[in-house]
Amino acid sequence: MRYPDIAEGKFIDRPNRFVAHVEINGHPETVHVKNTGRCRELLLPGSRVILNHSDNPNRKTAYDLVAVYKESLGLVNIDSQAPNQVTKEWLSAQGFDVIHPEYTYGNSRMDFYMERMKAAQNTSERYLLEVKGCTLEKEGIGYFPDAPTLRGVKHLHELIKAAGEGYRAMLAFVISMPKVTKVLPNVETHPEFGEALTEAKAAGVQILELPCKVTEDGLEIRSDAQIR
Questions:
Q1: Tell me: the pLDDT tens digits for 70-105?
Q2: Rounded CA gap, 119 and 166, in Å?
């Protein structure tokens, strides 16, 4: 995925989850933050940030804050919509016959439903995939979540159920930062998510760790990532 019109700025502060103050070309500007998570270790005063300019004249803010440079790590994409977009692009190259985003299963809406034909048996294998973007890094390792996520726990329980019903159930961590290839549950922040993830692995849910190539104007899952 690519951002069509990017700009660079300097982070000032974040008065609430949705907006931040950023200095652009020497002038303070109120911008939309495309991530409602905490991002406390990323959005620090003086940090260099990347913004995407919107051409919508009806918006209250002219820019979206989509990425930030973290010292010793590099550029981190914090756009919460990006992981699903790049996953859809990546799935299109994985040999699936059917890809349905936003698929209703049980009491949840899962990010993707896929099918792949098994030629030998003349049947289709069914997949359910839930996507989580990872932007929290500690000592070279990614952690999820950066804030408690009841929705994430619910999705894991749905994937456990799906695995028991014959689906290839998968949870994908899209790692939206460089130099990081491994993700662990952030049990300090949300121990219930860690417990649910352990249960999911035991039930046969496949955990995918998808490192990304991060640039100022885009994000893409690395070409060596694949479903085994």
A1: 998 999 999 999 999 999 999 999 999 999 999 999
A2: 18
